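The instructor's notes for this session suggest beginning with a concrete chain rather than abstract definitions. Hand out the sequence below and ask the class to guess, before any prediction is shown, which regions might be ordered.
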Amino acid sequence: MKSTQAHKPRFFPVILAAAFLFSAHALSGGVVYSLVETTPGEEPGEAEPSVTMWVADGSLKVRGSGDDAGEMIFHTDRREMVIIDHDDRAYTRLDEAAVKRIGARMEAAMAEYEEAMASVPAAQRQMVESMMRDRMGDMLEGEKAPEVEYKDTGSTETVGDYSTRVFEAAVDGRKVRELFVADWSDVAGGREFSEAFEGMASFFSDMIQALSRGPMATMLMEWSADSWLDGFADVGGFPVKIREYGPGGSAESETHLVGTETFEADETTFAPPSGYRQRSLDL
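After discussion, reveal the predicted structure:
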C-alpha cells in the first residue's frame, strides 16, 4: 500500500473545510495521500478517493469531492484557518486573534444577558430562561466535548503493505471506530504529517476553549468526536484503515489509504481559490 499511484478524490462528511493563505514564495516538495471510503470488507479497487490530503512545509490540506466537497488547510507556524464554502465561492479566515475576539464578544453578550436577568422577578425569570434555553441552549450553557477514548487492543494486522497496530475508539463506552495504525516512519512523509496534525489538534483545542459559550464550539466538538481525523493525533501513527461502527454496534464503513505521491507545492497550493470573496467574522 505504499503505492505512488495517484487516484482521483472523493470526500467524507466534514463540517469544517479550510484553506490556508500563504505568502507568495515557492514551497518545497511534499506528499499527497489518497483515501477511499468503502462498505465494510470491500476492497477500494479503483474507486474515487473520499479524501485527498496534501502535506508540505508544515502545512496540511484536506480536500474532498462530491456532495461533501471541501478543503481544510492548516499552517502550523501561523496557526490560522480559512473556512471555504465552494457553493458560495467564499472563505472565512480564522486565526487565534479572531477566535479571541469572537470569544470576548460572546462573553460580553452573556454577561449582559445575565445582568438583565438578575433584575427579572424569579417566576418570570424561570419562564424566560426556559424559553431562551429552548432556542439558544448552546449559547446559554457551555457544553462538554464528547470524550473519545483510544485504546491499543494489542492486536496487529497487515493492511496492504503496512504492518499495523489495532486501536479502538469509544465514546461513552460505545465503540465508534477501529483504527489500523502504521508507524509514522513507514508512511511517506509521516513525520511531517504528524507534526501538522498535532499543531492542528492544539489549535482546535484552543479554539473550542475560547468559544466554549457559543454554538460554534458545540459544532466543532461534535465534528471532532464524529471525525476519524481526530484519531491521527491520538494513536501515535498513521491509520491506514479506519472502520466506523454505528449505534447498533455493526460496522458501517471503512476508509483506506490507497496511495501516496510526491508533489511540488507552490504559492497556490494552500490558498483559497482565485475569485472567492472573504467573509467577515463580525457577529
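Then share the key points. The CA atoms of residues 37 and 255 lie 4 Å apart. Helices lie at 96-118, 122-140, 190-210, 215-226.
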